[in-house]
Amino acid sequence: MSKLSGVSSLIRLAAGTEKSRVTKMIDSREGLIAALTEAAELEHGLLLQYLFAALSLKKFEHERLSAAQQEQTRAWEGSILAIARQEMAHLGTVCNLLSSIGAAPRFGRPSFPQERMSYYGPFDFELKRFSDESLYRFVRAELPQGEPPPPPPGHYLPAGHPQKQLLASMVKPVPEPLEYDYVGQLYGQIRDGFAKIPEPNLFIGPKFAQDTDDWSRRMKLFLVVDRGTADKAIDSIVLEGEGAPGARAGSHYATFLKIRKELSDAQQTDHNFDPARDVVPNPQTRPHRDSHGKGSLLTNKSTVRVAEFFNSIYETTILMLMQFYSYGGESPAQRKALQGAIRETMSMAIRPLAEVLTTMPAGEGSTIPVGGPSFEFYYDVRLSTQAQNRWVILLERLKDAADFCKQLPSSEFGVPEPSRFSMTGQNLGWIRENILTVLKQEFVL
Amino acid sequence: MLWLKFSGYFQCRLATDPDPTDERRGVSGYVHALAGEPDLDRVIRLQPNGTVIRSHCPEIGVKVRCVYVDGGRAIEHALVGADVALLDEPKFEGRNWIVAEDGVEPIVPFHIRVTKNRFSLQRSHADAEEFPFTELRAQGLIFSPGEIGESTGIWDLDTEWDKRLALLRDDLAKTGDETEKARLQRRIEFMTGMPRRTMYYPAKMPYNLSLKGTPIYQDPDHVLATAVDVQQPWSTECWFGAWDPDGLSGFMKGYLGLPLVKPSSEGERERTRAREIAQSMEHRELRRL
């Protein structure tokens, strides 16, 4: 074991047929913050990829689905959306882990796409429609250590298990790059870090600065105050992702394996069965300097406009998440209003708009291929340091969004399902009113 | 004062949280438009028109069951059996908690109509409604298994579902239609899934509203001996409950209170009362014939 810049490296023999490899042991607060930042980005990136694939699935008879296929695609979409919701809870729990050691939450991430080895080590981070290839990537991302790798998609060369490395934080002392082949392995390193760093020095974050509220019946977050609760939080994330050896059922890994098998069976029965809309991979409204890989530039004017609007709602949601997890002195009622607004924006604005985008043409002159939710950041989204300004900015953004939705259906840009835009606008306006009511009651504004 | 007591099954095909409210097929919530069924539309329907009745599920229809005039029950009043409907595509407007939490969703708009032959009266809570629809909200989600059981005759939805499941399995074994097969399979899967979604059956959502919208009152055949007072607000109290998530139906029961134009003298009051009794007897006589 050699000591390097506050981080030790440890030679380990991995289980089973795994070749011996070098992993890094975290033994400093900075190392832990870097690893948890990585974990937050991974969870965020994974959940968006899952959402994208799920929302690309066809739903309607007129999309050339048989009755059985219609039920099948619904079940797949429901399963993948449920996994995405759990990934949201994982992201919240990772923010709690960050907060417990005195660090800020992390909701940023690099732009899509990110080819493997360019940023996230062994994982391609790409927004792609539901397909065997997507499922392969998802199984791979959730693969438990020791389980056999999934068979690669037919049109891919065997992927193997390339080593990867990921740069951690730029702060000094500079932690060593993390190395892992499995998400669970990353969490293993984080757990080791929590175990290695003396407990009294590590947990400096106040308890109140963590989120343990019930967002819904389907999401569970963990309070982290010491090594024991940190372990419990990490275990829950790994268990939901991978399951336990010999008990994988219900885990993300097992669910994706099952869906992949069902897709294969369904396509053997009906060779023409294509369960997803013809959504372009990695849709973008403009090129991004930090993306690595091939994006699809949307050129249809209406679609670009809706996609940009979608991205602004996504940014607003990220801003609200930043505010919620930053604990900047908001009262319990304000936090409740913020939490409600986040949850409601996700289900009542982001999802409907994302679905509509998967029905809008990507380019001019043809109805296919179609666009999709691009989840783009146009700048490094940051939270105002002044609580008062956070509210002002949030209310402004919600008002603008609500007004935009009202105008869109009657504008020069033809949009499908105008009633969905009208309802989304109404929802955003009412979400704003709910926040405003609380702020007025508490004399904030 | 005239009170109309009404009850019957309603249907509401609505996507449930975490699906967006305007989800048309249902994905991550437990309500789905099954293969071959039209899209979900959230509309609360008290009458059969527009409903989608799944096999072995209750028929929809809310009707006036009893009439009370000035504190006495008018046996076999002409309005018994009148249809009760909610107009203008009313919805449980929760919007995944933006408007209201589960179980206290306002009904927007609330516009009730009672019709029988050429008789018709209708009135809304208000001519225009505004967020946050406070007066239109349910007063809570109340567990009331006794009242639900007595009203519907079904005291235990689990037992009812077991009977229905046997029928659905029989149907599945017999059908050769692929769409029906997919539908039946999905229903059986849903009804046997755990936890069973029968838990809200014994619950009801009570509403109590004053109706002040522009009224419409038409009684060309003088079904009512005394005219309904359209200047005063009307009132309604009702509940929606007994939710059956397979049939996407529930039971509703309530009262509509209608002030009558006050007779000007004691003699006129006597005459009015006599007319009500005579009409009631005449109606009974007609039914016998």
Verbal overview:
The complex is a heterodimer of chains A (445) and B (289). Chain A has 445 residues and is mainly alpha-helical. Chain A folds into 2 domains: 1-277, Up-down Bundle (Ferritin), CATH 1.20.1260; 281-445, Ferritin. Chain A is built from 11 helices and 5 strands. A 3-stranded antiparallel sheet of chain A has the order 1-2-3. In chain A, a hairpin with an 8-residue loop joins strand 2 (7-12) and strand 3. Chain B is of the alpha+beta class and 289 residues long. Chain B is 22% helix and 27% strand. Chain B contains 4 helices and 14 strands. Chain B is globular. The A-B interface holds A 59-61, 66-68, 70-71, 74, 77-78, 81-82, 85, 216, 218, 340, 343-344, 347-348, 351-352, 419-420, 423, 427, 429-431, 433-434 and B 17-28, 32, 34-36, 95-99, 131-132, 178-179, 181-183, 185-186.
What's the SSE pattern of chain A? Answer: EEEHHHHHHHEEHHHH
| Percent of residues in β-strands of chain A | under 5%
> How many DSSP-defined strands of chain B?
14
Largest sheet of chain A: 3 strands, antiparallel
- What portion of residues of chain A is helical? 40-55%
Q: Summary?
A:
Chain A is built from eleven helices and five strands. Chain A has 445 residues and is mainly alpha-helical. In chain A, the strands form two sheets. Chain A has a three-stranded antiparallel β-sheet with strand order 1-2-3.
Question: What characteristics describe this protein?
Answer:
heterodimer; A: 445 residues; mainly alpha; Ferritin; 2 domains; globular; disordered N terminus; B: 289 residues; alpha+beta; eight-stranded antiparallel beta sheet
Secondary structure layout plus pairing:
The complex is a heterodimer of chains A (445) and B (289).
Chain A: E1 2-4, E2 7-12, E3 21-25, H1 29-55, H2 67-100, H3 132-142, H4 183-196, H5 199-202, H6 227-242, H7 252-269, E4 283-284, E5 296-297, H8 301-326, H9 332-357, H10 387-407, H11 418-441
Parallel strand pairs in A: 4-5
Antiparallel strand pairs in A: 1-2, 2-3
Chain B: E1 2-12, E2 44-45, E3 61-69, E4 72-73, E5 83-86, E6 91-92, E7 107-108, E8 111-116, E9 119-124, E10 142-143, H1 145-152, H2 157-174, H3 178-192, E11 203-211, E12 216-218, E13 234-244, E14 249-258, H4 266-288
Antiparallel strand pairs in B: 1-2, 1-3, 1-14, 3-4, 5-8, 6-7, 8-9, 9-12, 10-11, 11-13, 13-14
Helix pairs in contact in B: 2-3
